[in-house]
Write a structure and sequence with these properties.
heterodimer, B: about 325 residues, mainly alpha
Chain lengths: ~280, ~325
């Protein structure tokens, strides 16, 4: 009796979860299937399996702006690549200082760093823009990449500090006894051992930079330098409602890199979120 | 584990260095470590002053000026602030819209996150798949592509109206009507409950099962268990989620920008605070006014965070492990 009761409860839970999952995913699947539907039936055909399949949307969308999407993807990958490298290195170096070294005012700096998490970016926005404007960096990738070399986000420093604290100190001490200095200890012991935290940092940096819209909106107005996010916006502005197909097709393509990460690196995503409380 | 001593063979043979080390006093080592510490900290420290502290001070100064980027800033005292609070209807609208958005989307998002997390914590089979599916929207949600999709879904001939048509209901443009446009953004925000859900799920796993077993013996039912065990044990995590989600909801920009085409319309109904700030600063080049707006936002967010922290004393329960966060 009791077991049947539990079984029934389980079944209801699963049914609810499956229904919820379908509701959650339906918009995404609808966009995916619409991107393969001919223009004329997108708004008439509700079903997820297109009655006619066409690649026209992808072909037309790819060259829908004056510059082909290949250029936008290349721009995005350059910006993202530099940011990933810079953020991983800068946050790891900073984290080593906080996790392993003793220096004056260490706790003050640490508190200040964590406090930046609570600071709305808008407060520094205007002067940053003025700075980059005066440096002549508008319409270059510098405003979107250079800040990452200087510590990146406090989120990632914190993530790496937490991880490095978990590495046994005996390893540092052994290397120290062998005469290794702090730079060698960092590079040969801590850096390789904190690989999981570095991967998590890289993944989140990838996703956030890839999705970033506000930064490019501010600093990039030359179409040749558009990343994908900005290109999609201007595509949607230039196209009328009748060309939703190509817009959907390019939207789907813009999500592909994130989706690949999601499939391959879910473990790191979940770990990163649970240990630091990242927003996803 | 590999012998660490083999990592640096050339140094381990260097007797001279070992002797140097013996001679060096403790304070010398500490001084050296202090220097090394600042070398490692240097990139962050430079960034902190160049990209955070410096700009903060400058924007505070600019908030008391008129500045259009072309001519030098002109000191106007409190004019920007006075204008904001007394004469700027769009600012009032923006504040209003943002408060409605934050105070609806954040609680709803947390309720969904907790509810689904509890269901997932119970259903043993397929948890990883469910978790992945529910998390996906929150991972993709920040992108322009999703905002564009949302605009279409709630458009005149969008997905929602097509579904309504099946039931014979004539819909309207949900994003195009001032009464409903903001709610499409709230739904978009709630749809992305995945990341707080994962934090809750990790928290639920930390609650000792003995608590539930003991209460079961005492005859507690599920509702009682939820109120007396789950909720109190989760309060630190609820609190953490509440603080972080509130801060990020206040700064939400992309969905409102995309869905309203940058206007914040119809009738200012999606004029998020950050969107209006962007319009002032980079549309009208009122950089002084935009800086003043940013500082007010900072004060509001900081104030709410402080209220959260003060209120937390009354409802956040830190167990024996103590308030480590």
């Amino acid at each position: 009796m009791i077991e049947k009761h539990i079984l029934g409860r389980r079944l209801i839970t699963h049914l609810l979860l499956i229904t919820g999952a379908l509701v959650m995913l339906y918009p995404l699947m609808w966009m995916l299937s619409s991107s393969f539907k001919p223009q004329s039936i997108i708004f008439r055909d509700l079903s997820l399996l297109p009655s006619q399949v066409t690649l026209d949307n992808y072909i037309n969308g790819w060259t829908g702006l004056t510059v082909p999407f290949s250029q936008f993807f290349l721009n995005s990958f350059i910006i993202v690549g530099v940011n990933v490298f810079a953020t991983v290195m800068a946050s790891s170096i900073t984290a080593y200082a906080f996790a392993r070294l003793n220096f004056r005012f260490k706790s003050v700096w640490f508190v200040l760093m964590m406090a930046t998490l609570l600071l709305p970016g808008q407060v520094t926005l205007i002067p940053r823009y003025i700075l980059f404007h005066q440096l002549g960096w508008l319409n270059t990738f510098f405003p979107l990449t250079v800040p990452a070399f200087f510590g990146g986000s406090a989120f990632f420093v914190f993530l790496n500090v937490q991880f490095i604290r978990g590495i046994p100190k005996e390893l540092d001490e052994a290397a120290d006894v062998d005469g290794a200095n702090h730079f060698q200890i960092y590079w040969h012991v801590i850096f390789p051992l904190s690989l999981p935290a570095l991967i998590t940092t890289a993944i989140f940096t990838f996703i956030w930079t890839w999705d970033d819209f506000f930064g490019p909106l501010l600093y990039i107005s030359n179409v040749n330098l558009y990343p994908v996010s900005l290109a999609l916006r201007s595509f949607s502005d230039s196209s009328s409602t009748t060309s939703y197909g190509p817009l959907f097709a390019m939207s789907i393509l813009s999500l592909v890199p994130i989706f690949i990460i999601f499939v391959l690196a879910q473990r790191y995503l979940v770990q990163g979120i649970s240990t630091t409380g990242f927003k996803g | 584990m590999a012998q660490p001593s083999t990592l640096f063979p050339e140094q381990s043979l260097d007797k001279q260095r070992v002797q140097d080390r013996k001679r060096s006093t403790v304070s010398e080592r500490a001084r050296k470590e202090n220097r090394v510490g600042y070398i490692f900290l240097a990139p962050w420290l430079i960034g902190f002053f160049v990209f955070t502290v410096g700009p903060m001070l400058i924007s505070l100064y600019l908030s008391f000026t008129n500045y259009d980027l072309l001519t030098s800033p002109r000191w106007t005292g409190l004019d920007n602030y006075v204008r904001m609070f007394t004469r700027d209807n769009r600012w009032q609208a923006a504040l209003n819209v943002t408060f409605i958005y934050v105070f609806t989307s954040v609680p709803l998002r947390l309720v969904f996150a907790l509810g689904v997390a509890m269901a997932l914590n119970r259903a043993i089979r397929g948890v990883t798949i469910y978790r992945a599916v529910y998390y996906l929207p929150s991972l993709l949600g920040g992108s322009v592509a999703i905002a564009l999709m949302w605009r279409q879904i709630f458009g005149t001939d969008g997905l929602v109206n097509q579904v309504l048509l099946v039931f014979g209901i004539e819909g309207r443009s949900w994003v195009g009507h001032p009464d409903t446009a903001l709610w499409t953004l709230v739904i978009l925000g709630v749809w992305q409950f995945g990341s707080p859900m994962i934090i809750f799920l990790a928290g639920l796993k930390q609650i000792p099962t003995e608590l539930y077993e003991a209460s079961q013996i005492d005859g507690a039912n599920r509702v009682q268990q939820f109120i007396r065990i789950t909720l109190p044990m989760l309060t630190p995590i609820i609190f953490f989620n509440l603080v972080m989600q509130t801060i990020s909801a206040f700064q939400s920009f992309t969905p409102a920008f995309i869905i309203s085409g940058g206007s914040g319309g119809p009738a200012n109904s999606t004029l998020f605070y950050t969107l209006y700030l962007y319009q002032q600063g980079f549309g009208s080049f009122r950089m002084g006014y935009a800086s003043a707006m940013a500082w007010i936002l900072f004060i509001i967010v900081g104030g709410l965070t402080a209220v959260n922290f003060l209120g937390a004393r009354r409802w956040v329960f830190y167990g024996d492990e103590g308030g480590k966060r």
